[in-house]
Amino acid sequence: MTILLYLLPIAVGLGLLGLGAFLWSLKSGQYDDLDGAAHRILFDDDDRPAA
Amino acid sequence: MSPCLHCGLPVSATAGDAARFCCAGCKTAHAIIGRLGLDRYYRQRQLDPSLRPPKPEETVVGPDGAAAFLGHRDGVATLNFFVEGLHCGACVWLIESVLAREAGVIWARLSMSTGRLVVRWRDGENDAARIQGAIASLGYRAVPFDPERLGLATERQDKALLRAMAVAGFAAANIMLLSVGIWAGHRQGMTSETRALLHWVSALIAIPAIAYSGRPFFASGLAALKARRTNMDVPIALAVVITPAVSLFETFSGGRHAYFDSSVTLLFFLLIGRYLDARARGRARSAAQQLVSLGAAAVTVLDGDGRAQSLRPEAVKTGMTVLVPAGGRIGVDGRVAEGASEMDTSLVTGESAPVRVRAGDAVFAGFLNFSAPLRISVTASGDGTLLAEIVRLMEAAESGRGRYVALADRVARLYSPVVHLLAALTFIAWTTLGDLAWQPALLIAVGVLIITCPCALALAVPVVQVVASGRLMRQGILMKSATALERLARVDHVVFDKTGTLTEGRLELLREAGFNETALAEAAAIAAVSTHPLARALARAVPGLVPAPGVRDVPGRGLGLDTPRGEVRLGSRAWCGVTEGEESGPELWLARPGMKPVRFFFHDRVRQDAAEVVQHLNVRGYGCELLSGDRAATVAEVAAAIGIETWRAAVTPANKVERLAELARQGRRVLMVGDGLNDAPALAAAYVSMSPSSAADVSQTAADLVFQGRHLAAVTEALAVAKACESLVRQNLAFSLLYNALAVPLAVAGLVTPLIAAVAMSSSSMVVILNAMRLGRRRGT
Per the confidence metrics, is the pTM higher than 0.80? Predict the structure, then answer.
């Protein structure tokens, strides 16, 4: 059962990675405009003002 | 008829360029878009006929104070707008692209979900009025607002809730994985060392997760205890704290069962319910926010030297002189010092026909100035205005209604003491009668807390609410109050307002009256240059109109045109020299040299489906009633047209509230459907209220539900959804209680292992959610 000693940290670590990614996306405002994102992709233009 | 190339409204087919556009504004907008090479907009957009078309407004909005809402930082100016009239992604793209081409703009981002636009530009290279003008010329209405004044705090709260939910979800999933191993190990002879390891890892994940995610419940539970009350969050907080504590103790002593998984899963489910609840409210709120911001337009103040300066309404002092441009809304109460004009008072009085004012007349905040600029000396501003007074009246009535307690809360009030008592009794019984040591007895008592914890109960109502509000929203009905649906389900009487509710709130030329087409064409050609609502209604009545050149606009009087035959006049009966008869409604006169003056009548058209809706309500057993501030003759006509038998005319806002109180005393539960600020107190005083969103801005904050579009069927739809929603909530609550009745004896008997707790909790929550989903699929009424 020593394999558990490796597998448990790996499993929890992967979970934490996912959690971190979600919290980051939340913080960077990716859920602020859910409707707009779906439409924005249809208009690819290069002259949007630089952020 | 072919649609206008820009706004898509029908244009009559006469020859030439004019026929491709419905008005000059649309032609300009089309030219701007073409010049910037953004024609793709027209190919890719999808206009939603129920929304405001992108038609540039005819009234020129004066140099109003977008500048007052400007924020400056590090040489960058930032301005926030709410943009009205977004139809699809192409609109978002167009506005962003056009702004990107404006001088100095470095950032323009428009959120399609909320309609909020943030524009940043390098200070000095552009100004607020130009930015606002650029959006307006495309046909969208942009209203500047101050983000600080909006409920950004609640937005942060929603995000915190989402983060708590994410952490709880992560912890629940990982601990559940470990728990499956532990449960399997019970059967397959796992060594106690391995089990202890798994328990320790669970504890390591669970305890920080609970400490973080449980905060909303801890805070609310503590607040309730401090106020010497108990709420649903108290047993939740207790269960969520005691369970891991006891489990930790078990883990120390190498016990077989630990409830880390149950406590974290419980927390996760509860947070889902809480988040859905907050979100359903938040969506409606963001719509309401836009309206609040509309009331906060800046005021142009003239100082001693006649210089104009933009001030926020609350900064204006009594005695100052305020300039109101034609087409501008007044932000203060005062007296007209200079000028004569006509005003739309509908926001305050509900009257759709314009009112004439001249020097010395009192005017109130919320009036819309039509024909000529006015100077007004301020008698009251900010909180002192009549408008603010009405809003206060409305808030007072609203807070009275705030005492209404949602069904779920009433259940919770009864439920939580019972849960505490049950758990305590279980503990005492096992230690005294059952001769158990305190640790296992406490574990059993905790089992009772977990099983009875209102997982299904906490989800039962919010899930149904979310599904119901989603369904209503797809049909353009926004719910602003969390308890609106519950109250709506109990309504037995519907009171309508007339102007803007049963009617469309827009004047139209009455065709039957005695005038010939030549007179109409001549009058319309003159009227085309004016922004006055009657003139516009007249111009609308003649398709493919060519405006007459050389028309003089005499503010507050009428229009004049010099022709070879002499002067032709269009306007009030006094302006046209008519003396016989009496004014009996909104009317315009046309006086031509050597001919009898011609009268044009206007009326406010009844909504297409009003009669159908009233009939439907009658069939379903609702009582219908019409209360209007309008003249008896007009009201009687409308009542007859749509089949309402009970009606009252010339009712003041105070009388409306009185009538509603009278109905309430008779035991009626009244749904008030109305618009206009004059209805706001009535909307707030009614048991539940609805308002069409073409309505005056402020009244929407008084109504519980707001509906868009030109159809009144929203009323029947909302009533039907509310009924369905209520029966689902009852089913869900009944199911939750049944589940408890079955599970509690098991828990009290000490038979609930972590496995059983996990299965029972998850399955009951699933059943409740699936049941709620049925509402989303059912169509029609």
Answer: no
